[in-house]
Design a protein that fits this description.
This protein has 1324 residues and is of the alpha+beta class. It contains 44 helices and 28 strands. A hairpin with a 6-residue loop joins β25 and β26.
Length: 1324
C-alpha cells in the first residue's frame, strides 16, 4: 500500500520562541521565515551526515522542550524550565494549497515566584461551549502546567491564571485529560506524581474553569483588570498511593469495574487463601494500570468510597506537630536563634498542606525485572493498549484480561497512537418520505508506531496480520495531525462570523469547507442564524456546493446526502424569492374590478350549489365586494427554511419536503399567510405561475393543502372572489397529489379524510362550512374522473363535465356521502357559533348589577368549539355549550326561554317561544338596549332551533343552566345569589321527573358537602361561629350560612313535591338531533336527571328538619343548642347525610322523652328570640314563630305549651291584640288560665299602690307580693300603662271566662276584677 505525507503546518517564529524560552543563549540572526524553511525540510537516513549534524545542532533545543497541542491543533504550547509560549494557528495559502501556520499568541516571561519552580508537564484541555449552537466546537483552550513543587496551575491562552491547586508535594510527572469514546460522559484529569495518582472528576473541573474565566472577564470589564483570583468550589478528586511498584512512569485509568460474584470469589481466594474472609456483595472499584518497573505493569483497584486514615498516620502527624511546637518554644529560651527566626523573611505562603493518599495495592501484573515500561497509548474502544519499554519493544496488552497479546521488537524510543477507519455504507442515512433507515457503520482501529530514531511511521492491525503501511517521516518529531482539523477551524470562523452578521464572507467560508459532514454543520449554522441572509447569495452558495459535488465521479453516502440537501434547500430558497417578488408587484386594478363583480350565482355555478345552500352557507360568511387582506410581518428566509424538514429519497422515490410537525400554531399561520396571502389579494392569473414553483419545490401536496385550508379558516368574511381563488388552488394542489390517491371508490380516501379532519377541528365554523362545500365540489370532479377511468381505461385525466354528476346518486361514493354529512353538520353548528359569538353587553351589565357579580377571566371558560370537539363530548354538548354561554353572560334563562302552559308530551316546543306576557314582568327592569339584545338573542335561538330542535328544548337548556350556575357558585361561594339563580332555574321545569333529578344532582354537587360540614360544626360549637377562618368549610363567612340554609330548605321541599308528582307522571321521551352518529362522550344532563332513583320522602323530610333547625339557630343567633341532641340518638342521627334514595332506619313517632324535652326547650327559645324582633320587624318575627309551631307539629311536641309561651311573651310586651288572636287556637285552658292570671298579676303589681290593696283578702295580697317573680320588663310595663288599666281588665275577663269554678285562681281573679272595676268607676 502506498502512502503520502502532505505538508500540513509550520512555525514561522522559531527564533522568537527560542529567545523567549532560552534568554541566556544567543539566538541566530536569521529571520524566522528563512530559517523555518530549512528547519522544516525533513531528512531521512539516506541524507549526508553533515546535514544530519547541522539539523541536530539547530533543533536540539526543541527536543529539550515540553510540547502539547489541543485536539484540533488550533493551539500549540511549548514550555522550558519556568517559561512557556502559546501559539495559535491560522490557515494561509501557499503554492495554491492551504497550510496551517502558527504564530505566538502569549509569550510569557516566567511562571516562577522566586522559589525555583520549573515546568515538568504541559497539557492543553479544550473547553466546549454549553450552547446548543456550538456544534461541538471548543469554546476556548485551557493550558494546564505541572511544576516540580507539586503545584498544578491552569491558565487561559492569554496567560490569565484561573486556578492553582497542590495535590502532593512531589514533582508533577505527567498530566492527562481522558475523554472516553465508549462513555462520552466519562471525563477525567489525571495528575501523576512519583508514586501518587490524582484523579479529578472532569465535569466539575470544567465547570469550575468556566466560572473562573467568567469571573476574570467580569473583573476586567468592571475594574479594567483581569488580575483577580476567584474562589472556586473545591474540586472532587481521588488521591491514590500506588503501592508495591518500584518506579511509576505512566498510568491509565481503566474506569469503574463491577465484578461478577464469581470473579469476586476468585480474587478473595487468591489474595487471602482458603481461610479468606469476604463480603457477600462484590465491591465496585476503580481500575488503574500503572507502568514502570518492578513490576512492569500492575493492575490496581481502588474500592469506591473514602477510606479512613490509618491510626499510625494520624499519630505520626500529631507527634510531628507537637514536636515542632516544643522545639520552636525551647529554641528561643536556649538562645538557639529564636530571634533570628522572628526576623527572617517570611516564606512563601503558596504552599498548601496536602492530605495523605489512600494506599492502593495491585491485584496482579506483568513481572519483568529487566524491563521498564515508559508510556502507554490506549485504543479508542479502551480494550487494548500499546506499551513502550526500555528494551525497545512495543507490547500490545489486553486491558480487561491483563495479558500481553502481541510484541514488536526493534522500536526503541517509539511513540504510539491509534487511528480509526469507518466502513463506507452505500445508502447510509438515506431516507424517503414514508420511512427513514439509519445504518451504524462498523469501525476498525489501527495501531500507529512512530520510530523517532529511524524516522519511520508504521501502521499495523493490532492483534493479527502484517503491517498495513509504512512511510518516512522526520526524525525526532513530536505531534500528530487530523484530516478534518482545517474544516473544523473554518467552521469555527464561520460560527464567529455569524455572531455578528451573515455576509458574503460567511458563504465564502462555507464553500471553502471540504468534508460533507462539516458542510452540513455549516448549513445548520446558517439556517440558525437570526441575522438577515440575502436569499440570492444563499442560492448561489447552494448552487456552488451542488456544482462541486455533482462533478465528482463517486460520492460516499454522506456526500450524497449533502448533495440532495443542498438541492432541496435551493428549491425552497427559490420559492421564497418568488413569493417575495410576488408581494412587491403592484396591485392589478383590472383584477380588482373583475373580482368586485363576482356574484352569488357565479359561485353557485362553480360549486354546483342550489339557492338554499347559497343562502344558508355562502351568503352568511362572505362579503359581496373585495376588500384588502390585513398585512402581516414578513417571514425571514431562515424562518421559512427551518419550517420544513427534508427527506432524501433513494431509488425510485423522490425527495420530499414536509412541514415540521413541531412547528407552533402561530408559525404555521405565518407560513401559510406568506405563501397564500398574495394570491388571494392579487390577480388570479398569478396562481398558475405559483403552482409551477410550488411543484418544483418538492413540498408534499398534502402539506400545501393543509396550509391552504388553514389560511382559509383564518379569514374573516372573505370576498366572493376569494372562493374562486380557493377553488382553483385546491384543484391545482389535488392534481399535484396524483391519481393514486383517488382511485379507490369503495373505501374512503386518506386524502379527503385528512381534509375532513382539518375542517372538523376548526373553530371557525362558518368558514369551515364554506370550505366543505368547495372541497365537496372538487372531490366530485375527481370522483367523476375516477368513474371515467373505470369505464374507459383510455380516458384522459382532464377536466370533465360536471353538469349532472352532483345529482347523479348512482355515482356517489363513500367519500361524497361523508362530505354531504360533514357539510350539514358544519352548517348546523355555524348557527350555534353565531349565538355563542354574540355579546349582549347591556343585558350582561344589568344582570351583573342584579347579582353583584362579574365573571372573572380566570373563571370564564373558553367557549370556542369545533365539530370534532362537539362530537367528542357527546349528545349533550350543544345544550351544555348554550347553557355555559347563558351563565357566563349572567342571563336569566326564563327571560330568554319563556314558558308555556302547554304540557302536551307530543309538543316539541323549543326555546324561541317567548311571549309578550312572559316578558312583561322583566321589561320594566330592562333598558331599551337590553330589550333589543333580547330580541336579537331570540332570533338567533329561533334559527338554531330549526337546525338543532332537540338540543334547544326548554327543559334541556334549563337543566344545563342550573348545573352551570351551581358550578360558578362553587368557584365563587361568597356570591350566594348565584346559588339562588341556580335554584330559580329549576322551578320552571315542566317535567317533574327532570325537576326531581336536577334537585338530586344539585344536592350531591353543591349542597350536601357544605350542609354536612356546617351541621357538624354548629353541633360542636352549640352556635354559629363568628368566622370560618380556621374551619374546613366551603363558605367564606358565617353571613352566607343563613341564605345557604334557606335555599337548602327550598331545594328539599322541591325534591319532595317533584318526587310525589313524578310517581304518577310518565317518563319523558328523550330525542336527539341527527348530528351525532354514535353515543360516545359524556352522558347528557337529561339522561342523568331521569336516571336518578326517586327520593325517600321521609329521609328528605328528616334532612329538612335538620336544615330548618340550623337555619333557626343561625338566623336568630341562638346559643347553646347542640342540634343533633334534638334527634333520636339511636336511629335518627345515623340517617343523616345518606343518599336521599336510600332507606336507613328512621326514628319512630314516639321519641325519647329527653329528646322531646330538648325540642320543646329549643322551640321556646326560638319563640322568645322571635318576639324580641316583633317590635322592629313584625313579619320577620311572625315567620319564625310559625316555623317553630310547624316544627313542633313535625316533632310531635305539645304545641299548646308553645302557644301559651308565645301568649305569655305577647302580654309581657303589651301586644294584647296579638295575644287575643292566639288564644282561640289554644285548647288547654288549665295551663292557659294560670299564665293569663300571672300576666294580669304582673301588671297590677306594678300599677296598684299599697293603699289600693287594703280591700283585698290576705290570700290575694300575699299572691300579689310573692305569688310570681318580677321581671325586668316591669319597668317598661309601668311606663306603658294607661291611667285606667283597660287592657288588664280585659285580660282578667278573659281569664274568668276560662277559669274553672271553686278554685283559688277564681277567687283571686274575682277580687282583682272587682278592685279594677271599683277603681275605674263609671268609666267601666
Amino acid at each position: 500500500m502506498s502512502c503520502e505525507i502532505k505538508f500540513y503546518s509550520s512555525i514561522n517564529e522559531l527564533v522568537k520562541i527560542k529567545r523567549i524560552l532560552f534568554p541566556n543563549e544567543e539566538a541566530e540572526d536569521n529571520d524566522g521565515e528563512s530559517w523555518s524553511d530549512e528547519a522544516w525540510t525533513w531528512k531521512t537516513d539516506f541524507d549526508e551526515a553533515s546535514d544530519k549534524n547541522e539539523d541536530k545542532i539547530s533543533t536540539d533545543w526543541i527536543q529539550s522542550c515540553l510540547i502539547s497541542t489541543s485536539h484540533q491543533f488550533e493551539v500549540l504550547v511549548i514550555a522550558h524550565q519556568d517559561r512557556y509560549v502559546v501559539l495559535s494557528s491560522k490557515w494561509e495559502r501557499k503554492n495554491e494549497k492551504e497550510v496551517r501556520k502558527y504564530y505566538v499568541t502569549y509569550p510569557t516571561s516566567t511562571t516562577s515566584d522566586g522559589v525555583g519552580e520549573t515546568i515538568t508537564s504541559v497539557l492543553c484541555v479544550p473547553i466546549k461551549s454549553l450552547q446548543k449552537s456550538s456544534q461541538g466546537m471548543p469554546d476556548w483552550i485551557c493550558v494546564i502546567l505541572g511544576f516540580n513543587t507539586g503545584f498544578v496551575r491552569m491558565y487561559t491562552v492569554n496567560g490569565e491564571l484561573l486556578m492553582t491547586e497542590v495535590f502532593h508535594d512531589e514533582p508533577v510527572h505527567h498530566l492527562k485529560f481522558h475523554c472516553s469514546a465508549v462513555n462520552p460522559a466519562k471525563q477525567e484529569l489525571t495528575v501523576l506524581y512519583q508514586k501518587t495518582l490524582i484523579i479529578i472528576e472532569g465535569l466539575g473541573l470544567l465547570n469550575s474553569l468556566r466560572a473562573c474565566r467568567s469571573y476574570i472577564a467580569k473583573g476586567r470589564a468592571l475594574y479594567g483588570s483581569g488580575d483577580l483570583h476567584s474562589q472556586h468550589p473545591p474540586l472532587h478528586y481521588k488521591k491514590l498511593g500506588l503501592q508495591e511498584q518500584s518506579r511509576t512512569n505512566d498510568c491509565f485509568v481503566l474506569g469503574t469495574n463491577a465484578p461478577t460474584q464469581f470473579d469476586h470469589l476468585i480474587a478473595a481466594s487468591v489474595a487471602g487463601g482458603f481461610q479468606a474472609r469476604y463480603n457477600n456483595s462484590p465491591p465496585v472499584a476503580t481500575g488503574i494500570l500503572s507502568l514502570g518497573s518492578l513490576p512492569y505493569c500492575a493492575w490496581h483497584y481502588a474500592v469506591e468510597g473514602s477510606a479512613a486514615p490509618l491510626l499510625s498516620d494520624v499519630a505520626y502527624a500529631l507527634a510531628s506537630k507537637v514536636t515542632s511546637k516544643i522545639f520552636s518554644k525551647t529554641s528561643g529560651w536556649l538562645g538557639w536563634g529564636g530571634g533570628a527566626a522572628d526576623t527572617a523573611p517570611p516564606k512563601p505562603k503558596d504552599k498548601q498542606v496536602a492530605e495523605p493518599a489512600t494506599p492502593v495495592y495491585p491485584r496482579y501484573g506483568l513481572a519483568d525485572s529487566l524491563r521498564e515500561a515508559l508510556s502507554i497509548s490506549a485504543s479508542p474502544n479502551e480494550r487494548f493498549a500499546a506499551v513502550t519499554d526500555s528494551l525497545g519493544r512495543v507490547i500490545l496488552i489486553d486491558l480487561p484480561r491483563g495479558v500481553a497479546v502481541r510484541m514488536w521488537k526493534g522500536y526503541r524510543d517509539a511513540q504510539c497512537g491509534w487511528i480509526t477507519a469507518w466502513e463506507e455504507v452505500g445508502q447510509l442515512s438515506s431516507s424517503s418520505c414514508s420511512e427513514r433507515e439509519t445504518t451504524i457503520p462498523r469501525t476498525v482501529s489501527f495501531l500507529v508506531i512512530y520510530i523517532t530514531k529511524r524516522g519511520i511511521v508504521e501502521i499495523w492491525t493490532p492483534q493479527q496480520g502484517t503491517r498495513v503501511a509504512a512511510f518516512n517521516y522526520s526524525k525526532g518529531a513530536k505531534g500528530d495531525s487530523s484530516q478534518k482539523a482545517r474544516d473544523l477551524h473554518i467552521l469555527q470562523q464561520l460560527r464567529t462570523e455569524l455572531l455578528h452578521d451573515a455576509s458574503a464572507t460567511s458563504f465564502d467560508l462555507l464553500m471553502d469547507i471540504r468534508h460533507a459532514s462539516i458542510v452540513n454543520q455549516g448549513l445548520d449554522l446558517l439556517l440558525e442564524c437570526r441575522h438577515l441572509i440575502d436569499p440570492n447569495t444563499f442560492v448561489k452558495c447552494l448552487d456552488s456546493v451542488v456544482s462541486q459535488y455533482s462533478k465528482a465521479e463517486a460520492l460516499d453516502a454522506e456526500s450524497r446526502l449533502l448533495l440532495s440537501r443542498c438541492r432541496i434547500l435551493s428549491r425552497l430558497a427559490r420559492l421564497y424569492i418568488h413569493l417575495k417578488a410576488m408581494q412587491s408587484l403592484p396591485p392589478d386594478y383590472d383584477a380588482v374590478v373583475n373580482a368586485s363583480h363576482v356574484s352569488l350565482q357565479d359561485v353557485a355555478t362553480i360549486l354546483r350549489l342550489d339557492g338554499d345552500e347559497i343562502s344558508r352557507s355562502i351568503q352568511r360568511c362572505t362579503t359581496p365586494t373585495l376588500h384588502p387582506i390585513a398585512s402581516q410581518s414578513a417571514v425571514e428566509i431562515h424562518t421559512f427554511l427551518c419550517a420544513f424538514e427534508l427527506s432524501v429519497g433513494h431509488g425510485s422515490l423522490e425527495d420530499c419536503v414536509r412541514v415540521k410537525s413541531s412547528l407552533s400554531r402561530d408559525d404555521r399561520h405565518a407560513l401559510g399567510y406568506w405563501i397564500w396571502g398574495t394570491p388571494f389579494s392579487r390577480n388570479i392569473d398569478l396562481l398558475d405561475e405559483l403552482a409551477q414553483v410550488l411543484k418544483s419545490s418538492s413540498i408534499a401536496a398534502d402539506d400545501l393543502v393543509a396550509m391552504l385550508v388553514d389560511y382559509w379558516l383564518q379569514l374573516s368574511s372573505p370576498a366572493l372572489s376569494n372562493i374562486l381563488h380557493f377553488h382553483k388552488l385546491l384543484r391545482i394542489l389535488c392534481n399535484f397529489a396524483g391519481p393514486e390517491n383517488f382511485n379507490n371508490i369503495e373505501t374512503p380516501s386518506p386524502w379527503w379524510q385528512n381534509l375532513k379532519d382539518l375542517l372538523s377541528k376548526s373553530c371557525n365554523l362558518e368558514q369551515a362550512c364554506c370550505a366543505a362545500l368547495v372541497v365537496r365540489s372538487v372531490m366530485a370532479e375527481f370522483e367523476k374522473r375516477k368513474i371515467n377511468r373505470l369505464n374507459d381505461k383510455n380516458a384522459e385525466d382532464t377536466d370533465v363535465n360536471m353538469e349532472d354528476s352532483m345529482n347523479d346518486w348512482e355515482d356517489m361514493s363513500i367519500d361524497f356521502c361523508a362530505w354531504n354529512v360533514l357539510s350539514k353538520q358544519l352548517e348546523d353548528l355555524s348557527f350555534l357559533s353565531r349565538l355563542i359569538r354574540y355579546n349582549p353587553v347591556q343585558l350582561r351589565e344589568t344582570q351583573r348589577r342584579d347579582l353583584d357579580f362579574l365573571v372573572e377571566d380566570k373563571y370564564s371558560d373558553n367557549l370556542e368549539f369545533s365539530l370534532a370537539s362537539i362530537l367528542q363530548k357527546g349528545r349533550g354538548a350543544v345544550s351544555e355549550l348554550i347553557a355555559r354561554w347563558v351563565t357566563q353572560n349572567l342571563l336569566k334563562v326564563r327571560t330568554l326561554i319563556g314558558s308555556t302552559e302547554e304540557t302536551n308530551e307530543n309538543s316539541d316546543e323549543s326555546m324561541a317561544n317567548l311571549s309578550d306576557a312572559e316578558l312583561a314582568p322583566e321589561a320594566d327592569k330592562l333598558s331599551v338596549g337590553s330589550l333589543e339584545e333580547i330580541v336579537v338573542i331570540q332570533d338567533l335561538i329561533r334559527d338554531l332551533s330549526q337546525h338543532l330542535p332537540h338540543s334547544t328544548q326548554h327543559d334541556v337548556i334549563l337543566l344545563n343552566a342550573a348545573v352551570e350556575y351551581a358550578a360558578i357558585w362553587i368557584r365563587n361561594p361568597k356570591h350566594m345569589k348565584l346559588l339562588q339563580r341556580s335554584f330559580e332555574t329549576v322551578l320552571p321545569l315542566r317535567s317533574h321527573l327532570f325537576r326531581h333529578g336536577i334537585c338530586r344532582t344539585l344536592w350531591s354537587m353543591s349542597f350536601l358537602p357544605i350542609f354536612q360540614d356546617l351541621a357538624i360544626l354548629m353541633d360542636k360549637t352549640g352556635r354559629l361561629p363568628k368566622n370560618f377562618t380556621s374551619r374546613k368549610i366551603n363558605l367564606p363567612s358565617p353571613d352566607q350560612a343563613v341564605p345557604f340554609l334557606e335555599i337548602t330548605m327550598k331545594l328539599l321541599d322541591t325534591a319532595v313535591s317533584s318526587a310525589m308528582s313524578a310517581e304518577i307522571e310518565p317518563p319523558p321521551f328523550i330525542r336527539y338531533d341527527d348530528i351525532w352518529p354514535t353515543c360516545e362522550g359524556a352522558t347528557p344532563m337529561q339522561e342523568v336527571a331521569i336516571r336518578h332513583r326517586l327520593v325517600n320522602i321521609d329521609l328528605v323530610l328528616l334532612h329538612h328538619q335538620l336544615a330548618q333547625t340550623l337555619h333557626l339557630v343561625a338566623s336568630l343567633e341562638i346559643k347553646g343548642v347542640h342540634v343533633f341532641s334534638l334527634f333520636d340518638q339511636r336511629v335518627g342521627r345515623f340517617a343523616f347525610f345518606k343518599d336521599l334514595h336510600s332507606y336507613p332506619p328512621l326514628p319512630s313517632q314516639e321519641a325519647d322523652p329527653i329528646v322531646v324535652q330538648n325540642r320543646l326547650q329549643f322551640l321556646k327559645q326560638v319563640i322568645s328570640k322571635a318576639v324580641e324582633h316583633m317590635e322592629n320587624n313584625q313579619s320577620f318575627a311572625l315567620d319564625y314563630i310559625n316555623q317553630a309551631i310547624k316544627l313542633g307539629y313535625e316533632w310531635r311536641v305539645d304545641v299548646d305549651e308553645l302557644r301559651i309561651k308565645y301568649v305569655d311573651l305577647l302580654y309581657l310586651n303589651h301586644m294584647d291584640h296579638l295575644a287575643h288572636e292566639v288564644l282561640v287556637s289554644i285548647g288547654s285552658d288549665e295551663k292557659l288560665v294560670s299564665t293569663l292570671l300571672v300576666a294580669a298579676g304582673r301588671r297590677l303589681k306594678m300599677f296598684l299602690k299599697p293603699s289600693d290593696t287594703s280591700a283585698l283578702s290576705p290570700m290575694t295580697t300575699e299572691w300579689l307580693l310573692n305569688g310570681f317573680s318580677s321581671k325586668t320588663e316591669s319597668v317598661r310595663e309601668l311606663e306603658a300603662c294607661d291611667p285606667i288599666p283597660t287592657k288588664t281588665l280585659a285580660l282578667l275577663v278573659e281569664c274568668l271566662c276560662r277559669i274553672p269554678s271553686e278554685c283559688n285562681e277564681q277567687f283571686i281573679a274575682n277580687e282583682l276584677h272587682s278592685l279594677l272595676t271599683t277603681m275605674q268607676g263609671p268609666s267601666l
